[in-house]
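#random but structural
TW: two for the price of one
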Amino acid sequence: MDLQSLSNLFATTLNPNPNVHKAAELEIRKVSGHEGMLVALLQIIASDNVDLATRQACSVYLKNCVGSLYFIDPARAHPDQRPIAPSDRAALKSSILRLLADSPSRSITVQLASTLKSLVSHDFPGKWPELMGGAQQMLGRSGECNSLATRLMSAYRRPHSFCQKEDILPQIVAELFPILVNIASQLLSSPPAGAEQEIPAILHLILKTYKSSIVLNLSQHQQSPESLVPWGRLLFQVVNLQIPKEAVPEDEDERERSEWWKAKKWAYGILGRLFHRFGNPSQLPSTMKAEYGAFAQHFVTTFAPEIFKVYLQQVELYVSGQAWLSKKCQYQIFTFFTECVKPKTTWALLKPHFETLVSTFVFPNLSFTTSKQELWDTDPVDFVRTSIDEYENYSSPVSAATAFLLQLVGSRTKTTFMPILSFVNTVLASNPAAPQRFGALNMTAALGPFIMRHPDVKHNMPQFMSQHVLSEFSSEEGYLRAIACEVLGTVERADITWNNEENMNAHFRAVAAALDDPQLPVRVQAALALTEMVSAHEPVRAVVAPQVGKLTIALDLLKLSDETDLDILNNSMESMVEQFQDELLPVAAQLTARLCDSYLRLARESLAQEENAPKGGDLDSLIQADGDDDKTYAAMGVAKTISTIVSSVDSSPEILVQVQEVVIPIITFTLENKMLDLFDNMYELVDNLTFKTHEISPKMWPIFELTYALFKSDAVDFLDEMLPSLDNFVSYGTEVFKNRADYRHMVLDIYTTSITNSHLGENDRVNGSKLAESLLLNLRGHIDDALQLIIKTAVDHIDGAETSSLRLANLEVLVNTVLYNPAAALQLMEQYRAGMSRQFFDKWFAAINSDNHLPRVHDKKLTIVALCAAMEMDPAAIPEALKDGWPGIVAGALRVFKDLPKAIAGRKALQDALQEEAEDYASDDDSRYLNLNEDDEDVWDEDSAYIEMLAKEGLRLREQSEKRTEDDAESEESDDTDIDEELGYISPLDTVDPYFTFQQALTTLQAKNGPMYQAATTSLDVEQQTLLMEVMRIAETQQGGENGTAQA
């Protein structure tokens, strides 16, 4: 087809008549895939004689074609897919840079840049080594730098996604970045005439490209003065740039989004990243010191002081009203100042200025601003959501200012704490305007945990509350009433000790009254504060209890939650449920019904948002649409509260059944609508309900059927979430399973699918093996027809497991088959593969005789009772391959008995340790907040230690991965200690006494197979004979169902 005809076809696809453009699309489909098609498209896109709309249509088709056909995954290939011809590939790579440079419109540029990304990701560098030379040549041509830089950077801005190996990224950096920094510097020093609109966009993309290159690593070239000096000079030039008012929009929100301020934001971000990750020697993880230690020392002494000086100048200009700073730039400045607190070198620079920065830069950000007032008036729900989540908003100057404040008082307590508190008190004592009073109290709320742990200050807090906070509950300004509630909630959470009961009661009455405040943000903060007071004070609980029993408080919280969809209010509801279990018991079903109504509303709204969301799109658009997840997160919170109610009413089976009837419909709705994000919460509810009731109600069985259908379709990778519920269905629904072959088949199919599905991982296979174990333990005598398939599946994978967890889980499936029916299991192994029973026993006894291959109590008990089952076999049923080693079964059981008491003691120690850890966490060590032993040296705190731990763990995992690749056998041994006790796992074997079981089995062996008994017992050495006598003695003492200290 000639160019003109092809161009006309693409023009016709824009025809408003659907029949016409559909016909054109069909014609294009006929010629697509033919060699030369893409060459023709490239010529049309490059032709100035073709209208822009047609050229854009061709560029879109080109992007889609390259994205789907340049590389075709053989595992997902379709018969009608034809790969792009080699001649078209060559034409693409030879033309794409020139097309980008000459692109006539942004819309075409976007499509071509996406095409280039696809080419780069698949062919560079191995199949496209000339790309670098072509890019260098074109970037170096005068007159083309501006246009090509703008277009090329979007394609080069993803180097870290494909260049972490083979030193590709350092090559790109060393060859292209000197050209980029030169382009940017020339644009600022000698801007070309008529390029005013293009300059900030080019700067923005060049700086964004540099930032992308230093996310993980800093190349040797970038560490060298040859790179650091020119880039540093450029970054300082951009930061110091005074942008003329006429060059940016007047509206501040639009100004924030302008290209000039985007460029400045990236300049700040680069300087911060260089210091935070690579240039701060006191906080540099030990794993990075060899590569970056020298650079960090140079940076912190030479470069960081210049950054601090420039940033301080920018702050001074901003606070004096001489210059404007965008919010994101303020955020970056605060973040850098925060990083300067712990290193002694930068602390020496910051120390003389911290009080000024707090009073002139931090305090205004924490005060009540006109933008906050506007949001309060126009959208109080969004105000609440924003204010509560603001500390976690990673672009908000308020969050960064707060983090800076907390870093000052936490790391440099002796120097900063009292001056900052003095500033707060001075502000409040001067009776300032309401916005400034809000700022001082906002600082108090932020510092509350620190104040309540400082030995010289915490006892003064009740007086501070009565003097400065209590009166604000009756303020005319709603935001002051709200911050008063927040301060109260903060000090209560930090365990304030009231100087007298009347002071506490006065604050309680004030916050209780605030629950009826006309302003929504006040009611929300009052609810949070009241929750803290209820948790902390018995007198408050006694007063609130009657209202809880009438559902008054709970319904108020529900109403607030429905108005705001805030997860934090669900936390308050959970706390109320935990505090008032007895009072809520009679109305638990009613409260649960209301919560289920809220959940369904949120779930439906989330579904509606998902249906209305634009399909496809790039990553940026998906991130911007992330706000739609609010409904989902709120629904998660409601589900968690329902789960808390289920846990709180387990003492009353009748109430629990009523609650279950109310909850089942929301579980069904969620699963039927495949709301995958909520599956974890729903299966937690199913697990709780089935476990607490110890039975499966008739209405719960459809959920089992739905779970199986989901596993076989959309939720195949949710077995981890499903497993506890599936185990409960098997454990507590055994009578139904005995009578329903289809249900048994479903569980068996889940097991085999989890083992054989190539898309699932080893953790899924472990979970599947646990489910098979549940079948074998709970349905003994009722799954004879499934035994062959279970054995075949496990045998096929007995040598294929990469992790010790899966090796053990798969082995124990076979061990369970021996326990289920030893004669049938061993016979089926031999039928499937000759000698298989011996191979299985060899692996089993290798685990028995090792020190840690049966690490858990359950592993040891299972092995003992399975060996006991084998001991009781009819001698004629023992496979020929096992007869010579059969006497060793007794010694094997004794070997496990030897380690059993130690395993039980270890599990008990783990339980105690977890309990102690929970108590320690609740006590909240003061050293986490304050550094009272401070000097002016480097500070190494919990955060520093955490980063160090992450770095070491990352290094360990990388080395382990490399080691596994190099030597699978060695790796197999290295991870055998990774299996920990599963304290929440409940098994039918928990009630089995292994000592008494062994005694009975040994007696049976003696009666059925005297010669084998004789061989087994006479072959024991002295230590084994002594152990045998001890096991028999313990068995004697535990007969009659008594549980001794040795039983798990």
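TW: number two ↓
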Amino acid sequence: MTKSNSYKVDYSVSLIGSLKSHLKGLLGFDTMIMELMQNADDAEAEEMVFDIRDECLEVTNSAEFQYCGNLKDKCSIENKCDFHRIFEFASGLKEKNSENIGRFGIGFASVYQITDRPKVISRGISAEFHPETGHIDIEELPTNKTIFNLPWAKNPSSDVRFELGLGNIDNQTIDQIFLDSESVFNESLLFLRHLKKVELKRNGKSSLIVTLNRKKSFNNHELSISFEPPKKSKEEWIVFEGKCTTESVNRLKNDFPLLARDDRKNDIQIAIKTDSIPIKKGLIYAYLPTKQASLLPLHINADFYPEPNRKSINLSGGQHQQRWNELLINEASEIIASKLETMTKHIGHIEIYELLLASWKARQEEDPFNLYWEWIRDTIKDGAKVFLSSQDRYEKSDNLCFDKLLTNRTKIELSTFYNAGGKLLHQDFNNHKNVHQSIAFLEAIGVFRLSVEEFRNIINRSELLKQFKNEISNPTDIEIDEIFAPLWSYADALIERENADVSIVGPIEFALTSDGSMASIDSLRAAPTDNKNSELAIILKFEKFSIDSWANKLAHDRIVQYKSLYKNIQLFSLRSLVSYLKVIAQTEKSFAQTLITSNEEAKRFYELIVNLDSLYVNENNDDADLLNDLKNLPIWKTSKGFDTLQQLLLPGNFDDPIGHSQMLDSSYLSSKVEKFIEKKLEIKRQTIEAYIETMLPTLFANGVWAKDNKTFSALMLTFANHETLLQDENTLNLLRQTPLIPNKDGAWETPSEHIYFYNKKLAELIGDKKCNWIDEEIFQKDKSIKKFFQNLGISSKASIYILLDRMIDLAKENSPQTEIVQKSANVFYALCKFYINSSDKEEFIGLVKDELHGLELDENSTCFPILNNNEEWYSSADYIYEPYEYKSFKTSNVSILAFTDLEKIKNCENLLQLFNFQKVDIHPVIEHLKNCIESKEPVDKQIYKILSDLEANSNDMPSNDNWIYHLDEKKYIRPNQTFLKFAPIKKYTYMLPSVYSNMDISLFEDIGVKDEPEIGDYINIILKDLLNYSSSQENLFDHAKLSKDDFDVYISCINYISENLNEIDLEGELIQKLFDSSSVLNQHGYFKQCNDILIDDSKWYRNFFESENNQIDWLTDLPNINWLIFERIGLKKISQCVELELTQTNRNKKNETDLVNKIQDRESLFLRAIPEQSYAIKKQLVRIIKKLKISSFDELIVKAHVNNNANVQHSSDSKSEIAFFIEKDNKLLISRKFKENNYVAYFKPILNVVLQNINIKPTLAVFDAICSKNLDDASAYLDALDYKDNEKLIIDVIINQDTATLEAEIESNDNDIATEWSDEESNLDKGNLKIKIDDFDNETNGSSITPIPASSMPIKKGGNLEKSSNSKHAPPRDRLVSYAEPKSTNPDLEKNNKHNLEIEIKSRAIVCKHERKNGRTPKEMPQDHPGYDIESIDNKTKEVRYIEIKGKKGELDKLGVSVSTNQFIFSYQKQKESWLYIVERVYQDNPKIYLIPNFARRVSSIMFDVGWANITENDIINSKYSPGMKINDKDNGKGIIQKVNNRGKIILLTIKLDDSNKIITKTLNSERMTIEGED
């Protein structure tokens, strides 16, 4: 190469700085070598040489650089030529060109690991880089290839080494570079696209040549890689190709826009080695290999983002590089899964298996490598045939099984099993290096392990055996060898290996019988001796009995060699023989003759039975069943032929007197067989006992003697004369169980049953039924036989059965007339005597139960008589009562048992209970008492004694009903009108009759008898006695006028109830009945309902309605009566319900200014005249007077209306009135028709408005006097009446709260208000609230605000009870008032802390109980918690209430309760979530809670009275007189304040005087002590 023109160019960037950043992750010669290969492949070079020389590394490739033709200026090519790009590699220009593998910006930089001045030669240009000076030497140097000349950086002190922080290159390093190059050559060419040959040299001498030969086909290509020298080798690969789907790429680019900029390639290549040497480790390639393992025996190549050092790909950080790489791995997984079946044509089955196993292992790796298994698993499930079977066929996984221990199978065995449906995995898999992991993998993909159970399932499904069974009946030896023997071999090996129960395969038909028929193992039997099975079949003459179910029972001789299988076949045993004979017996009537044709055959046959018995091992403990079957077979020889053993005996010492017995023919029996029959089969020899046991039952086979009377007598006489016969207990029991006894009804009975020799006395008790009496004529009354029968158990006393049967017969055949009842009673008394005399009472009861069951006598059987009923019999299910108290029920219809001889049933309670006779309990006694009450018959006083013993109470006998018989009054009275000490209301209250005084009075107390009447009793007198009220009444009606006595009773009751209201629940049932009934007397003395009547409390209003045309029956004005109870339940006063209507005013209106002035001048006098009235009333009167307008007319026509929002609605006639007051306009209209200055008439309508419900007559008289006098005389008049002028000025705040809104809000926020206030007056009326600013709160040092409920609430919201307008502390009706006082300094308050704490604890408990009752969950706050005490959450709506609780020992009064500033502010912030609960009477049983929502927001402003003047002064003083201020003390001179000590209203100042420096302490006097500079 010839050099020519040369020049220099500068780097466009700082090369040293860029190199340092790139080389941080590039220390590794293999990286450098791979990058140089990459640059060559980018340039589409086909050949490349690495020559490692002693002085340099020279790398040559067959391509040339792209060149723009001018290196001095900017490149003219759009993406820049290779020279410009390599000059500016640090700017990352290659990154945007994904066609170039070396785009990562580190390829050329990597050479600075070994050189300080690299030189690049291409396109006739030589460029030598000088990074330490920042320039490039350019020379023209002709060449047609590209050469990288890299002189070794051997000088450790060079500027480049120093700047880069790298060591120098020595000979040892050069050797290492050579070794690294060899390694890279062996694995780096696989996915390069253009290079075909790469050579490695050492000082010009070839060391390694790698040649690549690519053969392209659809979606894959085969690749051969040759290596030489030192010895020639070759690798074969197949590369599968695919792409990421456009949809997935676009979706990712949308999420990560940087991907669109990078323009990544979506091609994916999978390389699998196809030659005989498998790949050691699969890698991830980013066109060149990384160190990242693929975890599969294959390489994956794609356009991955590698880490900067190219050791791995980016799989962290969550950015676009990670997501792109994960997408490529996912798509590669899909390609691998889709090519599995194709791979079977290129690589071996073991390699396929290793690939599948590796993917299964990777399932536990983190994303994305666990995706391998997901794709491959789904492909396998979809039926990919990738598993090689024992027949060298690839199969689906779910068709295969495996078994490592069955490896030495012959070809025939494998083939037969395969044809039978058993597709075994190829045996090569059984030798896998990791057996346990391999097995787990196979099971995971559905390849099942061959077990005895799976073998059974395969054979059950086998079409091969089904076809054979249909087509071939007797297989040849070859067919046995090729079909059955292999299957027996498999089953035998599996059973032996698993030590399995042969029953698993027992039911399947894959075995053969001795004659070649297919059968199941369960159905086969094996010969018990050394004989072959086929020989045993001949001995038992199977050929004579061609019975399908038994002819083929013996196993084929060939099965014997399969020991694990054969040993589980049942031996042909005695049971087998018996089963065989039973089957034959059902089909061949003469089989015994056929089986036994001679004495010798008989002996051999019986000997065979005995021999089989000796081999028999009973595993089921069912000897008895087997031997019984043997006895029942008709194979036993007698003199009369063959028979069963059931009725045969062996010859013995007893001769049958009637010739009935049958015995075995002993000539056929050997001593051994005879012993077997006697001992094992338990056939007895003929003794008299054996005869009775065996033969006697046959003589009474149908419960009747089978022969004539003479024969019977002869046999019975033989038994009777055998002295020791009945000493044998077994024989005695057999005789007692045999129907030996004839009765007169022609039937035969057992001696142990209920039959008797005739007896007249016994006949009177049990009757003359023939079946109960023995027919002695049958045996001619022979005494020996009669005695024999008695010894067998014939009794002279009636049995339980006979007695019960007699009672049933009496009831069936007769009605319960007196004579029949007596007979039935005698039978029952006999039964009771039987019970009393029994030694074991429980056993007797059990016997009776058994007999009842035998007689089918149950609780519905009617055979018992009851008192006072001669028509019907009753059953125990009819609730019959024991007769012990029958005398008290003589006239009753209660079902009392008619067996009343109490002495005879004494101590028989358990027997009576057996028949379900009931002890007399409270219910029949109550029923009896009710019957007496209804029939008005006196009741026996003993009834009350019984009720007392039964602990009757008011639940059984309600106090409102007439239960007590009054002997003197001869009538029944109520418990609640019966008293022990005091009965004040004659005619309606009574003292308990003295006849009961000697009894325990607890019964009467329990049902409501008291010492004296209570409030509920007075209500009952009104309802029950005066009104005769019934809760079932639907239409209420007016009652007749009361008599004078009853009127007095009524007044007394009402007064008592009103005076004691605190003792009764105002929402209780009695009060509701009082409301519902017509319980109010009108002024004419007739009863009316509360809604239909008004209290006449205003003569003025009533006068409007009095006329001839208006009969007033809707008013009541009873003398000496307290109406409080009726007011509480809604009765209103006429003054509350009347509205006056001005219907007409004649003309000539005149404004009465002088009259107005006169009244207004006397405003303060009017206030003095009503000292006892409330502040609100006074305020209202002042308001009316101040705004009063008066007009006069010639005449005023007025009409009155009553509207009680119920039934009372009336209108009066129009009438002329003196005055009419229009409240809303504050106008008084007066009539000139009457005399002038009628002040009483003028003030009457005004005071009726102001003083509602108050008697205004006295006030009218005083007001009239005030107006009739001058001011001084009027004042003197009031002084004379002691009406003092001492009114305190009260500054108030009116809370503008709409009444209806407040009530609606309260109700919507707490629906249980009515529940809590149902029995008391509440204190919220029409939204009016009075608030007092009480004292400073200790917690806040501020003022406290005390809400006080103002007037009454409804007693029952939404119900029938109306609002009450009377309250002991009823405040104003139209406003809420606040008071303000200074903080108290009273030291006594501290003493009350403990008491207040007790009240708070008690109040909290009451509120918590209330909240839980109303469906909320309360949570208490600490006692010092600011703002509120309880947080309560609604269980359904989850709404929260923040509750501040205030408790009072007594009732709520004008002082009210106090809230702190914190509590007030908290309520103001929380609004509707904030509640004030005021609990009054906390220590009483009937506390009451006021529930006030959003209490702070209901206050619109707060006003302060004159009591705050001192506070204001102190505040001013506190702000002026403070430490450090200069002060002028007129007594001591000037000084400086040192300290201010506030002791309530007294303030002490500590002053340092200027003149003497003396310190004094004195009380502040603002008149003598001033701040300097202040006047």
